[in-house]
């Protein structure tokens, strides 16, 4: 890093010099035009050429040899990376199954649709303006879906909720997470995206990192539901009740910790971290007793407890994000 003195020319214009070696390396000379971009977080970005389009404007993906699932997965990855236009093509033409996979997956993603199609290619374009996206509201929606899924998964253990209900809702969680991932990645490439979202880099990172934890919790909910779905017997009522209670404690950790992120109402990140540790210890104690249980009960409950532990740890991770944010705010500039 180098420092430069700000000079004032005339009555109001300020100037700053740039390193001569750097200017020579980039073919900058007297009379060259510089492009200045001011941003919401106080940053001033200087560019020496004006790009006609973003690095994330278009991606052209050859889908030859990809099966339908891989084709859909590639589309989702390109969407999450932030590309505005995604063209999937194959020299010999896309198969009907690939086309169906692209159309189905595009319907599952927010703010995009198939806009062009030919014998060789399908084009998916983003149509949602960044300024119309509320990162905070999307995170709140993801929080609601995730916590609802996890509670329903625990209800599957006691037979109160069909497991398919949880599995079906995973698409809602994925849709919200990929929307947040898309705008997070776009903002890494272009700070104008941050301004349109109305967030600073640290704020957007905190929301994205929280969303990542929610997405993992949703996956754990699906794991619990599928584990219960594959059983061929009922777990004893006492064991199911005790396991569900631990799961609800883990859910409470997540809910309390995430309030500090989405509602800006922290009851104390340290309290949430300590609560998560208590849940983990209690779940491991119960797991240690499974050796004395019926093998079929022990196998199922062990899988459920593993997801409960990991969910509590996700809650602790969210609390750590809240703690980091509060420390940054406390150490920020004061008037």
From TrEMBL:
<dbReference type="InterPro" id="IPR026022">
    <property type="entry name" value="PhoU_dom"/>
</dbReference>
<dbReference type="GO" id="GO:0030643">
    <property type="term" value="P:intracellular phosphate ion homeostasis"/>
</dbReference>
<feature type="domain" description="PhoU">
    <location>
        <begin position="143"/>
        <end position="228"/>
    </location>
</feature>
<dbReference type="InterPro" id="IPR038078">
    <property type="entry name" value="PhoU-like_sf"/>
</dbReference>
<protein>
    <submittedName>
        <fullName>AbrB family transcriptional regulator</fullName>
    </submittedName>
</protein>
<dbReference type="Pfam" id="PF01895">
    <property type="entry name" value="PhoU"/>
</dbReference>
<dbReference type="GO" id="GO:0045936">
    <property type="term" value="P:negative regulation of phosphate metabolic process"/>
</dbReference>
<dbReference type="InterPro" id="IPR028366">
    <property type="entry name" value="PhoU"/>
</dbReference>
């Amino acid at each position: 890093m180098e420092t430069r003195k700000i000079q004032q020319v005339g009555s109001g214009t300020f100037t700053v010099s740039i390193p001569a070696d750097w200017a020579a390396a980039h073919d900058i000379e007297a009379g060259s035009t510089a492009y200045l971009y001011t941003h919401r977080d106080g940053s001033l970005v200087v560019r020496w050429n004006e790009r006609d389009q973003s690095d994330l404007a278009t991606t052209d993906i050859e889908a030859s040899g990809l099966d339908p699932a891989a084709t859909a997965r590639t589309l989702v990855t390109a969407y999450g990376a932030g590309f505005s236009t995604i063209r999937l093509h194959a020299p010999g033409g896309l198969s009907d199954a690939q086309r169906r996979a692209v159309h189905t997956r595009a319907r599952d993603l927010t703010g995009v649709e198939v806009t062009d199609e030919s014998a060789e290619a399908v084009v998916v374009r983003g149509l949602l303006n960044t300024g119309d996206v509320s990162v905070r509201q999307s995170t709140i929606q993801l929080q609601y879906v995730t916590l609802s899924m996890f509670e329903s998964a625990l209800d599957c253990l006691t037979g109160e909720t069909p497991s398919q209900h949880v599995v079906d809702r995973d698409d809602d969680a994925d849709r919200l997470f990929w929307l947040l991932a898309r705008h997070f990645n776009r903002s890494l490439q272009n700070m104008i995206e941050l301004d349109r979202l109305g967030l600073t880099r640290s704020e957007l990172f905190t929301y994205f990192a929280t969303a990542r934890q929610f997405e993992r919790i949703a996956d754990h909910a699906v794991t619990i539901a599928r584990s219960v779905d594959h059983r061929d017997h009922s777990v004893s009522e006492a064991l199911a009740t005790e396991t569900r209670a631990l799961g609800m404690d883990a859910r409470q950790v997540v809910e309390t910790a995430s309030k500090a992120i989405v509602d800006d109402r922290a009851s104390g990140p340290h309290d949430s971290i300590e609560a998560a540790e208590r849940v983990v210890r209690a779940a491991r104690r119960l797991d240690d007793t499974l050796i004395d249980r019926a093998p079929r009960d022990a196998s199922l409950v062990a899988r459920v407890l593993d997801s409960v532990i990991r969910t509590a740890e996700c809650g602790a991770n969210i609390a750590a994000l809240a703690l980091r944010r509060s420390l940054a705010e406390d150490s920020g500039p004061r008037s």
